[in-house]
Amino acid sequence: MLEQEFKYYIDNQCDLVKKYDGRVLAIVGHEVVGDYDSYEQAYFLTKMKHEVGTFLLQQCTAGDAAYTFHVHSRATF
Predict the structure, then answer these.
(1) pLDDT tens across 41-52, in order?
(2) Nearest-angstrom CA–CA distance, 10 and 47
(3) Domain residue limits, the chain
(4) Hey, CA dihedral for 3, 8, 9, 11, is it positive or negative?
(5) C-alpha span between 15 and 17 (Å, rounded)
């Protein structure tokens, strides 16, 4: 679910950052349907026009920091 929207973001990240750097994007299909100051604003305003589960909210920044999660552990094996 939402693979299409995430792929659109990744494929177009450089151009999107030039236009929307630091904003939270609402993406439906292959289209940015809104850009917002925060995830909260993006969620509440986007769900007024699009059903929850049909749009992706993505922080628009360069690199992979906004969509990559690293876990560090002290465990040794």
Answers:
(1) 999 999 999 999
(2) 23
(3) 3-59
(4) positive
(5) 5
